[in-house]
Fold this sequence. Notes:
With 336 residues, this protein is of the alpha+beta class. The protein is 21% helix and 26% strand. The strands form five sheets. It has a four-stranded mixed beta sheet with strand order 4-1-6-5, covered by helices on one side. β9 and β10 (183-184) form a beta hairpin. α6 (291-300) packs across α7. The longest helix is centred in the middle third of the chain and has 19 residues, at 137-155. Residues 60-66 and 306-311 have low confidence and may be disordered. It comes from Pseudonocardia sediminis. Its cofactor is Mg(2+).
Amino acid sequence: MKDGDFELIDPPVLSRGVMDRDEQLRFDVDYQRRTWSQARLVVVDENGRTPVTWETRPEATFREGDAAAWDAAAGSGGSVITRAATTLGEEPPSNAVLLGAADGIPYWAVRGKPDLLAGDDPSEWADLRAAGAWLDELGSGLLTVSVAILNWHDMAGFCARDGSPTHPHIAGWARKCEANGHEEYPRTDPSMICLVHDGADRVLLARQPVWPEGRYSVLAGFVESGESLEACVHREVGEEVGITVRDVRYLGSQAWPFPRSLMLGCHAIGDADIPLNPADGEIADALWITRAELRAALARGDWAEKPADDEQKVVLLPGKVSIARTMLESWAAQGD
């Protein structure tokens, strides 16, 4: 292993799916109908929320997407609450998506909302960005793929080739257009996310203008058409903070279905003595901090507030649901 090289100490939290995603079952209509009476249903509303139960409930009920509050006060042992598939009828409807199977049980996903008449409690519904880090492996995988595939269906109602309406096909894993039978498949947008360090004891962090004051993370950007992952790292780092990097190494990946990204985690070495030049309008600030300073930020906890008597810049880190957090924790764990 080269100097400065490291690996992720844990898998990213949204990469823990345990389902068998057998593609052949998507074509097997007989299987789908035969197992429908045993199947379970993941219901996701238009805001990406689904009902969740907890071994230890969060200390409070938080507004949608309030990842800061969830990271500070979330419970433990979260599980997605599923429904009997037969609540939709005697066989799979056209708008349901076959997610896969776990322990012999098929799981499907549909758009829906709390059913007050059936006893649903809207306060139990949580979204992936806020609660994803606290879900068990099955729940994390179910909600991640459900949000991703249903987001795609919401935006793929018309054929990109002839403009005619499209309809779900192959158990929800494709859409077919009315005019010419063109098939379209779920789209994923690859994005690099790179932890830049100096090969020794300093790591580069940056913040976007729209983020809360003090919140920093690693650099990220979308891979362009015809571009390799490594080329994207070099280009994005140069564009965002004005430095060059070397020794780009792959770390791991995580789905980020907001609405349909795949985060490809890397690390690379940069020269901490070269002045940073944050991109105007894209990067509000960028800075190098030491491994000890990063460890102190991690020890303060997620989204910690700056003490009133503290004149130093306090770094607030991304929440546990992000692969960025896993990357930072893994780099901080290296060295003395």
